[in-house]
Specification:
The chain is an all-alpha fold. It has one domain. The protein is built from 20 helices and 2 strands. It is an enzyme of class 2 (transferase).
């Protein structure tokens, strides 16, 4: 039977081939270029934080706050890799300079109060008044005696919410923007070797998953008694629970596979393979990570003296680096590298050959996830910095003040140095892996080799450090909702849209994929002019933000 419309079918096939070639990138972009673009998210958060500190958002109408939030924390990210892609430094300055100008009057007010011997808004005494200084010292001593937070307590870290929210927003916007010509080709995923913005996105998504997953590990470790640990590890039960968690992800992967094949949607086979997609990678992570957890739990029960957060974090780091190093050695000393890159992919090939990129790159993503969990163990829980007593304060306000002082001190003395040290270590390892003549390796997201793993880990630790540093200049807040205090709660200082994306990250990522497919099936994105493209992208970003905020307001949290 003849094709009823061979011309239309030929045109559709031509468009599909053009789209496949268009979304691929051979050269990538420099790390400096990538860093300047991703720095926009932190710059936007700095301006938002400064506006909150100056109380410029407090008296505003709710709709105005959301509009400002959308412009700063969504549109700025979108503009960074579209209309301002050639001038990201200008966009960063346009966000940072107003923040600095808004902070200057606060510094002048603080110096003025100090010169007059008056207390600052933080309630601390100044050097000009010896009596006030003595009272402050006495209050500090009482605060140390009335400790509220205990080491190991899970607390809300606003900078973690901002970091993950910014990453999810950038990922959701980029997967659609890449289909338009306004999105520079250097930011699209590279074919085999090199770095790009979208290569950074997939790795950061996995790292953040490990980061937030550390909270469950911390809770499990706190609830398990030492006697129960010595009795043994219920490996079968834990593996069954992990596999059950993977089922929805596999279903999403199968649904995406069927829709892509049936709709004849443009796809790049060398990204993950013929049948594999990112949802399958996410689906295989829980059982493999649980297997590592079981092994580490057995090892920890035999060495009960080393059960602190730093010891547990180090074990995850060692395992992650060991897995990645063994994989790299196999790549470079066997035929595996040639098999992944150049093996023929014929209709008669087996499933391993057809999906080799997705299957073998999973090893690198597993290492990234474990390293994210290592970072999460250190920053998701409170770590004590001074010896404190557990006596209950008489007043709730005093308890909130004590708690606040504890967390501020801990952020300065523990969290920031920890993130900076981890950034330096992994950045040094990346430099050694890619620049030393003996190794001279090249980053490959397609392989997820050790330079790619080190790059992702170093970048995300640096981003976390930067967001934590920005949090330090923001408004004061307390972490316990049960305490009434004049300060804001930890949740109130976070961007509402960032909080909404962080709350339902994976569900919104799925929605973004569906929206991307819908736009591509209804519009010729490849030939769309820049003005029309930006209108579509801003509308898509607004719709996604409205859904995210609506789910957050309704208290909906979808666990996939």
């Amino acid at each position: 039977m003849d094709d009823p419309d061979p011309a239309a079918r030929a045109e559709a096939l031509s468009y599909k081939l053009r789209k496949e070639a268009f979304v691929s990138n051979l050269s990538g972009s420099s790390l400096t270029d990538i860093n300047l673009v991703t720095l926009v998210a932190a710059s936007a958060i700095l301006l938002w934080t400064t506006l909150s500190k100056r109380d410029l958002l407090t008296g505003s109408d709710g709709s105005m706050v959301y509009a400002i939030d959308f412009l700063l924390n969504v549109c700025a990210i979108l503009f960074a890799f579209t209309v301002y892609a050639s001038a990201p430094l200008f966009l960063n300055l346009a966000l940072v300079v107003p923040a600095i100008l808004l902070l200057l009057p606060l510094q002048q007010q603080t110096r003025s109060r100090r010169s007059k011997g008056k207390p600052t808004p933080d309630g601390t005494a100044q050097n000009g008044d010896a009596k006030a200084a003595g009272n402050a010292e006495k209050s500090s001593s009482q605060s140390r005696q009335g400790a509220v937070l205990q080491p190991g307590a899970l607390i809300v870290r606003p900078f973690l919410t901002n970091y993950r929210g910014a990453m999810l927003i950038a990922t959701a916007l980029a997967i659609l923007a890449v289909d338009f010509r306004i999105f520079p080709r250097r930011f699209a995923k590279v074919e085999t070797w090199g770095t790009s913005l979208m290569d950074l996105g997939v790795g950061s998504f996995v790292f953040s998953g490990g980061l937030v997953g550390a909270r469950a590990v911390i809770r499990d470790g706190q609830s398990a008694s030492s006697a129960r640990q010595q009795q043994g590890v219920n490996i079968a039960g834990r593996m069954f629970a992990a596999c059950r968690h993977s089922v929805p992800l596999f279903m999403l992967g199968i649904a995406r596979l069927i829709s892509v094949k049936n709709l004849d949607y443009a796809e790049h086979v060398t990204e993950y393979g013929v049948h594999w997609n990112f949802f399958f990678t996410l689906g295989f992570l829980p059982p493999f990570v649980e297997a590592v957890d079981c092994c580490l739990t057995i090892f920890r029960s035999r060495d009960a003296a080393k059960t602190g957060p730093r010891a547990r974090s180090t074990r995850y780091d060692v395992v992650a680096l060991l897995i990645s190093l063994i994989y790299e050695l196999i790549l470079n000393n066997t035929n595996l590298l040639a098999f992944i890159l150049i093996a023929p992919r014929t209709p008669d090939s087996d499933l391993l050959t057809k999906n080799r990129e997705g299957i073998f790159s999973f090893i690198g993503y597993l290492s990234i996830f474990l390293s994210g969990r290592s970072t999460g163990i250190l920053v998701c829980q409170y770590q004590n910095v001074t010896s404190t007593k557990t006596s209950t304060p008489k007043k709730a306000a005093q308890a909130a003040e004590i708690e606040q002082q504890q967390v501020i001190a801990e952020r300065k003395k523990v969290v920031l140095p920890t993130l900076l040290l981890r950034t330096a270590i992994y950045a040094l390892l990346y430099i050694l892996a890619t620049n030393v003549r003996a190794t001279n390796l090249i980053v490959s997201r397609r392989l997820a080799n050790i330079p790619y793993v080190l790059w992702i880990i170093a970048y995300n630790n640096a981003q976390l450090f930067l967001f934590a540093l920005i949090e330090a200049v923001g408004p004061r807040f307390t972490f316990s909702k049960q305490y009434t205090h004049e300060s804001l709660s930890a949740a109130d200082v976070v961007s509402p849209i960032m909080r909404a994306f962080n709350r339902n990250g994976l569900a919104l990522f799925l929605l973004a994929n569906l929206g991307t497919g819908l736009v591509n099936l209804t519009m010729n994105t490849l030939d769309m002019r820049n003005g029309a493209a930006m209108a579509v992208l801003v509308g898509y970003a607004a719709a996604l933000s409205v859904v995210a905020v609506g789910m957050d307001k309704a208290g909906v949290k979808i666990k996939i």
